[in-house]
Amino acid sequence: MNWSFQTDRPIYLQLKEQITLLIISGQYPAGSRLPPVRDMAADAAVNPNTLQKALQELEREGLVYAQRTSGRFVTEDEKMIEQAKNQLAAEQIDRFIEKMAGIGFTVEETLALISKRVKE
Amino acid sequence: MNWSFQTDRPIYLQLKEQITLLIISGQYPAGSRLPPVRDMAADAAVNPNTLQKALQELEREGLVYAQRTSGRFVTEDEKMIEQAKNQLAAEQIDRFIEKMAGIGFTVEETLALISKRVKE
Amino acid sequence: MNWSFQTDRPIYLQLKEQITLLIISGQYPAGSRLPPVRDMAADAAVNPNTLQKALQELEREGLVYAQRTSGRFVTEDEKMIEQAKNQLAAEQIDRFIEKMAGIGFTVEETLALISKRVKE
Amino acid sequence: MNWSFQTDRPIYLQLKEQITLLIISGQYPAGSRLPPVRDMAADAAVNPNTLQKALQELEREGLVYAQRTSGRFVTEDEKMIEQAKNQLAAEQIDRFIEKMAGIGFTVEETLALISKRVKE
DNA sequence: GTGGTCTAGACCACC
DNA sequence: GTGGTCTAGACCACA
Fold it and tell me: Which of A4, A74, A91, D79 is most exposed, with minimal Cβ within 10 Å?
């Protein structure tokens, strides 16, 4: 996995987002075992505690669950995953709309630009 | 200014993007003088050479021009700025569409989601 | 405040419980400002991060809220506090029932013993 | 055995309580020989003198008796054990009632809450 | 070897 | 001076 981070948002939130994406995209299928915290942390080049925090947030949201001795697992509840997908999309949209506003486009203009862009 | 960077894209491209945004938004107005490279580099906490590279790209595109002795200036050509604005928007859109595709939404679905999200 | 801890439960959970009690009992009234994390941590003789974790849990439950620069405050929502009171009571009851079961008394026996004990 | 302690009550009283529980629950059966003081102290991670004090209290109450050369034994008197059980229960009840009062519930309310909680 | 907790100490943004 | 984040490193229970 290629982890990447921005400097202006907490790393643990970005980890949460990227792990969510891995689950949604099926790279971590429903019910499957996640890699150990330490391994994932080493892979992402962050402190294990930081990754722990991200995973605990995901746990609170119900997307993953921990079994103390045997590891962490993706939820088997497909609805949960579907919901995470929608929430992730909503966040992306909000962030995008905000960026476009920063550039100087209203939502309507943005929608028009996307449509036009795609037709090209 | 609050500079922020991602780990997975060249810094100079991100600098270029953010400076463009400052110009578009009028924080660096048309015709105005840009701060010295060293100051900007220190502010953004990047190597002056990196910033230099970003500015040279902006020069090549015509958004900025240099005067031998007195520094760099934002173009006075408002059309140029308008064009930069559109290009920046196009890049944002492409990146966003790509992200949404990664989550699992087509462009049509994405457009629908934005409309719905805004109405809420 | 006299903080006290058991060795067999996470400190942050006990902190959460004791702070909840302070709020319920009105020592930290609704809407009032809590002491700074560092002060409370020093007072309780725990690491600020541990106290932080307890407070963030309370925040997630809605019992307190943070204002980044000016400190943490108890919620103004009295219903929230009432609810916390009931939840705290429920936890105490569960723990007590469990203890009595460990000694060898059923719930019915325990209820009888309490009634008897009070009449004395 | 999993020993656990609170910071706000004398350790020897807590040791006494937990040993009593071991006797009541039959883990140290009536008439059986207790482990050597040093072993128990090491297990509980307390000073042998502290454990000694707890055992002397238990002796004074008649729950345990010492034989000069061969160690300490649990009493064979089942009534004694029964009595210890009731006393331990009484202590738990008092402490629990006090806690519930601290939260803001009378004994009557507490009894009602327990009944309700159990039915759920 | 797994997740969980705790400490110490640092740096940051915000006002 | 406030809360928030991150790192490094340690120890624990569990099986």
Answer: D79
Q: Are B119 and A108 in contact (CB under 8 A)?
A: no
The model's pLDDT over A31-79, given as tens digits with 9 standing for 90+, comes to: 999 999 999 999 999 999 999 999 999 999 999 999 999 999 999 999 9
| Greatest Cα pair distance in chain C | 54
Give the CA diameter of chain D: 54
Residues D62 and D15 placed together within one structural domain of the fold: yes
For residue C32, what is the domain's CATH number?
1.10.10.10
Per the structure, the count of domains in chain C is 2
Looking at the structure, tell me whether residues B71 and B35 fall in a common domain. yes
Distance from CA of D30 to the nearest CA of C (A): 16
Contact B114 A110 (CB under 8 A): yes
Q: Which two tokens stand for residue B109?
A: 């679905």
Q: Is residue B2 part of a domain?
A: no
Q: Which element (helix H / strand E) includes D12?
A: helix D11-24
* A43 shares a domain with A22: yes
The domain containing residue C83 runs over which residues? 79-119
Residues B72 and B89 in one domain: no
- In angstroms, the Cα distances linking B45 to B10, B107, C68 are 15, 37, 25
Protein-contacted positions of strand F (CB under 7 Å):
1-10, 13-15
Taking 80 as the threshold, does the pLDDT of residue B120 lie above it?
no
The residue among A85, A96, A97 with the most chain B CBs within 10 A of its CB, best to mutate, is A96
Looking at beta carbons, which residues of chain C come within 8 Å of D27?
A: none
Task: Enter the pTM of the model.
Answer: 0.89
HSE (CB half, 13 Å, CA atoms) of A46?
Answer: 22
Query: Burial of B18 by CB count in 10 Å (0-12 exposed, 13-18 middle, 19+ buried)?
Result: middle
C45 touches chain D (CB under 8 A): no
pLDDT band at D43 (very low <50, low <70, confident <90, very high): confident
In a shared domain, residues D71 and D107: no
| Per-residue pLDDT band at A119 (split at 50, 70, 90) | confident
Q: Which residues pair with D6 in a beta bridge?
A: C6
Output the CA–CA distances (angstroms, integers) from residue D21 to A34, C102, C103, in the order listed. Answer: 41, 8, 7
- pLDDT per position as a tens digit, C43-90: 999 999 999 999 999 999 999 999 999 999 999 999 999 999 999 999
Query: Closest chain C residue to D120 measured between Cα atoms?
Result: C90
